[in-house]
Fold:
Amino acid sequence: MSTPRSYHSVVLVKQVPDTHHVTGEVMKKDGTMNRAALPAIFNPEDLNALEMALQIKDRYGGTVTVLTMGPPKAAEVLRESLYRGADRVILLTDRRFAGADTLATSYALACAIKKIGPFDFVFAGRQAIDGDTAQVGPQTAEKLGIPQITYAEAILNLDGDTVTARRVFDLGAEVVQCKLPCLITVVGTANRPRPASARRRIQYKLAAAPMEYKDLLRRWPEFETEEALDQYLAARGLKIPVWTADDIDADLSRLGLAGSPTQVYKVNFVVLEAKESKEIPPTPEGIQSLIDELIEEYVVG
Amino acid sequence: MNSSRDVWVFIEQEGGKIADVSLELLGKGRHLADRLNSELVALVCGYRIDHLAEPLIHYGADRVLLADHPELELYRTLPYARVAINLVQERQPYIFLVGATPIGRDFAPRVASAVRAGLTADCTDLQIGDYESKKEGKVYHDLLYQIRPAFGGNLIATIVNPNMHPQMATVREGVMRKAEPDPTRQGLVEQIEPAFEPEDFALQVVSRETRESTVNLKDAATIVAGGGGVKTPDDFNLIKDLAHALGGEVGASRAAVDAGFISREHQVGQTGTTVRPRLYVAAGISGAVQHRAGMDKSHKIIAINTDPHAPIFDIAHYKIVGDLRKVLPMMIDALRAKAK
Structure:
């Protein structure tokens, strides 16, 4: 056994459209999606990643820093992270990040993580539901030059600078031992993410990033100026820090659209094949005639 | 060495058995290489795997890069990625295809990041074609079209990677078709000596258990699948009962898998399995593109949904607007009546 120590974790989270609940209302007739009808949510597996980091902090001490890259609105998931127990949050936002594919995204994230400082773990959800690529985690690990443990379901042991974790996949499981620091992507079955704590919700309700000040002033006209609000929030540790491309020592040519090898060449609406189709009434007679027809045509044998 | 037009396939093997998806990618890779008039190269890592070279050539490879080393016996990200990264940097393939398996999805992004290549996940089709960049005022010839559902699955996007090669893509098992092996095909085998670095061994596998899939959706003649319209485990049992009555397999959309009604092995769609059964019954499945991409080539489709505007009805041969909790028992009864 090594001397007990504490651990510093960085958790990568993303705000995503809730694509799991695409209903008829969200789909327009031409096959496009009414994105406004989709609520923006905390990517589900990122909550599992945050929970894993918080459990390490609960048990061993240390810190949990949550980092997100996205539009200003993504500050919402950072507040959610504060409610759950994050010590520090950072919003990475800049128009120059726009149009980034996974390679450029992982580059920006890796630059930001390096700026955060020494860490033992980087956690991320296995994948985000809006793209399902599961690429950003491994690509960030590569850029940080650290090993990756993908599809982690549990941390079985933590001893000095060695972590033992269980990985799960469709047809099996694996136990691996890895030297820290490392990056871990977490699956949805790993844990049950804690709900927001009522106390912390009150404590951090006002946490805001500077680009949210305009809206806040409408709700709290008593502050009168953004400067006054900024001073008030900063003094109470409620100012969500915003980092841009200039803050993370990034090579600008590797960011955003310019730093993305993949480009969308074209997008097609899904043309549904107009097949010959029969409407079957949902009655015993209707269903019986359907089954008879399928048997006659040898579709059902 | 100058960049080539060669098409590479990462061959996944476990215990000396080649993964189906790798053979399927050789089938597709063969077409792409023929179109580009270039070589199809199979890269395989493992330990004591000499015997794999011959079948890989029979399935379409012109050249097999064989990295045989005790440290490669079990898949681990860093040693495998090291072999691939060194080879890609040295030989600069034009296209590099990887199966979208748990291993492939761990391996491909690590390699893509290191060689700074573009990578498109879960492609449902791959083609060769030209791309005109209006911004650069330049036409790129014979790029890889990486085609996949996008933006929540309601659009089909064609992705290209004009400059930063290789053009990398992952593809799920069952999406491409395996070629018939040709035992007369000839090819080259090159032994690759890995050049590991000490940090490649930061991670050790303590134990590993794998099992064979008990689900065979890819070859099933009949599939009964449930989706988000299924609200309780009891209701999902109706899906299983009908599948049983039809002698078929149970499928599911992602919504049903996420709800915990059934394991992910049963998932049909872009991020699950692609199926082509004689009969596909979609119960309570709205029909997002990701799901349809995995089943729209079914011979006959029956869709059951309470929403008459559900997109699934647009590809169904038989539309039943109704509650699956009523309709499925009727179907089971009708089948039983016939069996008597």
The radius of gyration of chain B is 22 Å. The first helix of chain B runs from residue 20 to 36. DSSP finds eight helices and 18 strands in chain B.
